[in-house]
Amino acid sequence: MPTPNRIPIQITPEKPQPLQRHHTARYYAHRVRESLATRVSKTICIGFLSILLVLGIVAFILWLSLRPHRPRFHIHEFSVPGLDQATGFENAQITFNVTARNSNQHIGINYYSMEAMVYYRDQQVGSIHLKDPFYQEPKTTTVLDATLSGATLTVSSRRWEEFLNDRGKGKIGFRLDIKSVVRFKVSTWDFHRHTMHATCDVVVGPNGYILPTSKDKRCLLGLLALCLWLSLRPRNPTITVVELSLPPGDNRTSVTDDGNNNGTLYYNLEIDNQNKDSNIYFDDILVTFYNGQDRAAVDRISAFTLGKGKTQRMAARDLSVDGRVWKALRNAILNATAEVKVGVVTGLRYKTWGIKSKHQGVHLQGTGKIGKDGKLIGKKKKIKLKHASKKWRVKASHIHN
Ligand SMILES: *[C@@H]1O[C@H](CO)[C@@H](O)[C@H](O)[C@H]1NC(C)=O
Ligand SMILES: *[C@@H]1O[C@H](CO)[C@@H](O)[C@H](O)[C@H]1NC(C)=O
Ligand SMILES: *[C@@H]1O[C@H](CO)[C@@H](O)[C@H](O)[C@H]1NC(C)=O
Ligand SMILES: *[C@@H]1O[C@H](CO)[C@@H](O)[C@H](O)[C@H]1NC(C)=O
């Protein structure tokens, strides 16, 4: 044994113990029992894993057999009669016949409302509401046919000339897009919704009827829930104050202005929905004008719906500006240093392909400089409202609640 006062190097290490040992019978009995226990636990483990594997295979087979197949679209007919007439666009018609096949054994498909769009050189020349929501049984085919004419068709004489020009070359290419939202259904179990987009390229001959090369052709199908959702995701409406006027009135009265005289504010609001596929349902819109931190005037526009791709300009509105604020604001206007802040608070929902989105809040703000004449300064004479900062939102909600 080493003692503290000895130098460690001098220690000769003990030789490793030989492995052979003298074991008792009790030790061997213990070893046997131990290996029995490991073998049992191993067997249980293997059994358990096997069951898992079998369950996995069963689930995989079930998934394979139940896996929803996307519907298949084929175009059978497509015609533009009257193509041989120079003035044919006046009563132009486009007729098509497409079939949608649900090839699934057990899975039905719920279609939400379905729309069809016809494109010529990537320009939309017509669109039509094809079907209200419907359910398609497994192993069935649905015929989707329609005739576009009049209001559903937007063919100008120029476009018709382009048709005729192509016709002279022997063929005219069109694209038929069918859009819907689908949901697969197994007995009572509904899957997620997917946005569906079938694209049928079609070529018609000089007689206006589909060429054999296009007939009964399968249409391309986009059924990418996420990607399409992203591309179809509604865009925020743009809200703009297009005319803002705070007439300062006569110079002379300003001298005696005691803060009891209210001012008047005229403005116009333009709301633009750029979404081709979504209507927007607006809540009441609260419009507040500020001079610095002071609230000058408040307006409330009643809830309304803005259609797809529409722009709405509210009728000109006039508001009373609080006398105390007006005094300061008017002085600033006459001094050409006035700046008016506009805050818009509302809420909205989008309705895309028959489906309403979640309700969402909208807080916008913008600032405009006012000239001596009480009108907006700047080239565009408008205030485009942008998303409000958080700080402002807190303030606005505080004011409006
Ligand atoms: C549309 O095409 C399908 C399949 O070819 C056919 O069964 C159906 O009768 C057609 N419908 C019309 C209106 O032409
Ligand atoms: C107001 O007063 C300014 C000078 O202080 C003058 O230039 C301007 O023409 C006046 N405007 C009106 C409408 O009287
Ligand atoms: C002035 O404005 C205030 C609030 O903006 C309003 O309550 C009041 O009735 C107005 N007075 C007149 C005379 O218009
Ligand atoms: C008028 O504008 C000048 C600067 O352009 C500023 O110094 C002055 O304080 C302003 N007066 C008022 C009453 O706003």
UniProtKB/TrEMBL annotation:
The chain crosses the membrane at residues 43-66. Pfam families: LEA_2 (PF03168). One of its GO terms (biological process) is defense response to other organism. It is a single-pass membrane protein. GO terms for cellular component: plasma membrane; plasmodesma. It is found in: Membrane. Its main location: membrane. Keywords: Membrane, Transmembrane, Transmembrane helix. It comes from the Eukaryota. The keyword Transmembrane helix applies. Residues 98-200 form the Late embryogenesis abundant protein LEA-2 subgroup domain. PANTHER family: LATE EMBRYOGENESIS ABUNDANT (LEA) HYDROXYPROLINE-RICH GLYCOPROTEIN FAMILY, OS05G0367900 PROTEIN. This is Late embryogenesis abundant protein LEA-2 subgroup domain-containing protein. It comes from Acer yangbiense. The lineage of its organism: Eukaryota, Viridiplantae, Streptophyta, Embryophyta, Tracheophyta.
